[in-house]
TrEMBL record:
This is Large ribosomal subunit protein bL9. GO terms for biological process: translation. PANTHER family: 50S RIBOSOMAL PROTEIN L9. It comes from Falseniella ignava CCUG 37419. Belongs to the bacterial ribosomal protein bL9 family. GO terms for cellular component: ribonucleoprotein complex; ribosome. The keyword Coiled coil applies. The keyword RNA-binding applies. Binds to the 23S rRNA. Keywords: Coiled coil, Ribonucleoprotein, Ribosomal protein, RNA-binding, rRNA-binding. HAMAP family: Ribosomal_bL9. One of its GO terms (molecular function) is structural constituent of ribosome.
Length: 150
């Protein structure tokens, strides 16, 4: 019996896979527990069209990430963040990924989710930094961040 998995099933396959199982296991466990549905012609056609739509959406996201990467990697794309400096040149507080994302949107008009900015640790000193941004699983850009005295 062929079934289409609706969820990941351990030792059987991932969501969307078409697998061959024994009729008893398919009807009495997988279908009954809404883990799979029978793979008839209509269900297979629906699955193929859904996979095409997902592939098209993934390609659009990849192209969008490449476009943002091109904007970020321009030579003049530098985010300047003014901070208050205390005695001995120490910065009050630290620069977080949220602040970098906000300043990037304000200064360069580029929207990036703060969770995509990959800071090993918050920036705590005046200077220039190269901060990686993971825009897509296959696309990474580096933003130049300049921390200056206010």
């Amino acid at each position: 019996m062929k079934v289409i998995l609706l969820q990941d099933v351990r030792k059987q396959g991932k969501k969307g896979d078409v697998i061959e199982v024994s009729p008893g296991y398919g009807r009495n466990y997988l279908i009954k527990n809404n883990l799979a549905k029978e793979a008839d012609a209509g269900a297979l056609n629906k699955l193929k069209s859904q996979q095409k739509a997902n592939a098209r959406k993934a390609e659009e996201e990849h192209q969008e990430a490449l476009q943002v990467q091109k904007e970020i990697n321009r030579e003049e794309c530098v985010v300047t963040i003014p901070v208050k400096i205390g005695e001995e040149g120490r910065v009050f507080g630290t620069i977080t990924s949220k602040q970098i994302a906000e300043e990037l949107e304000k200064q360069q008009n580029i929207q990036v989710d703060r969770r995509k900015i990959q800071l090993d640790e918050n920036l705590a000193a005046v200077g220039d930094y190269q901060v990686p941004i993971k825009l897509h699983p296959e696309v990474t850009a580096e933003i130049k961040v300049r921390v200056i005295e206010e």
